[in-house]
Amino acid sequence: MLTCIHILFICLCTFFITTSSSSTFNLTLPHQHHDPESVALDVQRRVNVSLSRRQLPDLQDPSQCQTGNPIDDCWRCDPNWAENRQQLANCAIGFGQGSLGGKGGPIYVVTDSSDHDPANPTPGTLRYGVIQEEPLWIIFSTDMLIKLRHELIINSFKTIDGRGTKVQITGNGCLTLQYISHVIIHNIRVYDCKPSGNTMIASSPTHVGHRGRSDGDGISIFSSSKIWIDHCSLSHCTDGLIDAIMGSTGITISNSYFSHHNEVMLLGHDDRYELDSGMQVTIAFNHFGVGLVQRMPRCRHGYIHVVNNDFTHWEMYAIGGSANPTINSQGNRYTAPPDPNAKEVTKRVETEESEWAGWNWRTDGDLMVNGAFFVPSGVGLAEQYAKASSVEPESAGLIDQLTMNVGVFGSPREDGDGVSNYGFNGGGTGDGGSTNTGAGGSSGAGDGDLLGMIFGSGTPPPISTSSVFLSLTIILILYTITTNRGDLFSFQLLSSSL
To answer: Pfam families this protein is in (predicted)?
Structure first.
């Protein structure tokens, strides 16, 4: 018997060692692209094609609706776009391309802006629509201000399409995408999001569960994939404007306007969470505007393509990272602040140069304004990245054209509203020393309510190999006790009953 136990123990140790070693080299996520450089190349090709088309004489449309922005040109030139709304799903670029949203499903019209009971939402409300199991293309009957009581838990295969109306979402929790896939959020303003939770919230028509306290992110993406956020305006939230963590991938954030916030965007859960090495995010045609401090984005692991964005304000840095993320910055315009100590675009967070010198951070065709400078590192233009550089990014001098319609259509930007430092977390300390400690946060071990309810139609995050090994070890110990020490085990039970 002891020989069998020894063999079993050796097998368990072998399993743990081989699984741990393979996890470093074979971490893959659903919808993770096998060749991220080809995706970056495709984005640049699409931009170049759209800009070239814009230069051609348009005999059928004297107004020349083509802007050179490949996303907008894909649907806005259709005079009947309102009747062909689902065409939008074909317009994504980058890693979020292929996000279906509610494509193929019926149109669901939000007619009620209330949010009275998150556990039992009323038909006609936004919450009722987003928790349904089937694909839905969600639109709005009129302009709406939706004040959420708690997190809006969004199920898979949903499009929230605010085109043609002015839709604002604010209040407690805001938008949560957890363990789901294929979601499109378009033309929505999200602001003043506060922490909330410790309550019952419906995640589907048949499931209501308890939610812990959220951080107050504008949009929280947790272990989700194929997500496209386009033409949104985000500001004044308690934690991040957009956070994507815990093995999320296949994300595009485009044509959006960010303002009045400290920690703008976090990509990656924790330096030790290696599953985020499969995170792939495209950040394209956005405007990072007034009142921003840092994290545009702040990255851990993964491949982040930052292309043709306009950075007009930061107080600490624009792009930061740790844990060896790949940063591919192409055709952006970086305008540095007056502060002589904040001219650098990049920041390696709490990492010695001897370590980050090998990270692949590169700048290609970026325009540096007012003393801005980008510190590249790593292989840069080595052979494996030559393909991505084979199509030179369009001049950042065209940023005004490419980002002319960022944010919610028809809504004024907040450049001149006089608001400053509202909704900041940590008073601007951020990667200089702040730590998020909320139960659903993005920096600590308590992230995301891992022991809480599982939302949507997706699956929970993978169980760590160490947890599996610990569980099997406990089983082995119990097996040994019950087979070889049966008398002692029985005696202990007997004694405890006396």
So the answer is: Pectate_lyase_4 (PF00544)
Residue found by looking up tokens 């022991």 in the block? 451
C-alpha distances out from residue 296 to 209, 300, 422, Å? 33, 13, 18
Mean pLDDT of 68-87: 95
pLDDT at residue 17 tops 50:
no
Answer yes or no: are the C-beta atoms of 459 and 452 closer than 8 Å.
Answer: no
Task: Report the C-alpha gap between 124 and 122 in whole angstroms.
Answer: 6
If we measure between CA atoms, which residue out of 24, 29, 423 comes closest to residue 244? 29
Q: Are 307 and 331 in contact (CB under 8 A)?
A: yes
Nearest to 68 by CA among 52, 81, 82, 57: 52
The catalytically annotated residue of 46, 127, 211, 295 is: 295
User: What's the pTM?
Assistant: 0.80
Q: pLDDT by residue (tens digit) across 417-468?
A: 333 333 333 334 456 543 333 333 333 333 333 222 333 333 334 444 444 4
SS3 content of the chain, % helix, strand, coil (to 5): 25, 25, 45
Mean pLDDT in residue range 304-322: 97
Cα distance between residue 148 and residue 113, in whole Å: 9
Residue range 201-230, pLDDT digits in tens: 999 999 999 999 999 999 999 999 999 999
DSSP β-bridge partners for residue 300 = 322
Closest CA to 442 of 235, 280, 271, 314: 271
Looking from the CA of 310 toward its CB, the CA atoms found within 13 Å total 22
Each residue's pLDDT tens digit, 147-178: 999 999 999 999 999 999 999 999 999 999 99
pLDDT higher than threshold 80 for residue 391: no
Per-residue three-class SS string for 345-400: CEEECCCCHHHHCCCCEEEECCEEECCCECCCECCCCCHHHHHHHCCCCCCHHHHH
Encoded tokens for 189: 């303003």
Q: Could you tell me which of 362, 352, 351, 310 has the C-alpha nearest to residue 334?
A: 310
- Asked if residue 250 lies in contact with residue 225, where contact means CB atoms within 8 angstroms, the answer is yes
Residue 272 annotated in active site: no
